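ingest -> validate -> predict -> emit
validate: passed (alphabet ok, no gaps, 240 aa)
predict: started
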Amino acid sequence: MAKKKILITGASRGLGLAISKRLSAEYELVLHASRPESFTSVIPGSTQLCADLSDPEQLGNFCKQLKKEHGDSLYGVINNAGVTFDNSLIFQPEKAIDTMIQVNLKAPVMICKTAMKIFSLNKRGVIINVSSVVAETGNAFQSVYAATKAGLIAFSKSLAKEAAALNEEHDIRVLSVCPGFIDTDMTRDLPQTEKDKYLKMIPSKRFGTAEDVAGTIEFLLSPQSAYINGSSIHINGGLV
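emit:
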């Protein structure tokens, strides 16, 4: 029996790499990174697609390539790629604002548009959009980033309803996940005083791991989560 095929964006490091490793045994993976040299870890049996999602032309070509090369068998999409440029809004360059909106929101929307065309033909599919805890809590110096991540939650909820409205017989689910403070390169660079401040806010008394997120996504792709749809799943150790 052929393995189901899953696209993972931002798969070369951090959460994306952990998700890829977690899913590699069960699924056939199509892995995205901005450049070929970004892949420093090889996932056996995977396919690589490269595009700078901040470039509208490259994003368009990526979607066309995805449909052409994988449209007959794509089962799942994990929109994980994202960028942040932390800064006070009054000092935030317009280019940085445009890049966050393009990569964090428009790229997932366009990739989902392509996926929905594929899923409507295959009559099944799962989309998981990676949002963030700051989509609901907010965070100083991340106003634009938080706005893009909040947009992903609303987009996912709406697209889940839309998929059902278009054809009740199709088995298409759309979800979002909201990781909290996860032990990645981004959080490791925080000053210790900042880490201590956030740890005091987390009932679980630790930062999450990439494996915490990967395990949740593995479950959400599985038949055991078949009745979870349109939901925003929080992976944050109780942070509110």
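The chain has eight helices and seven strands.
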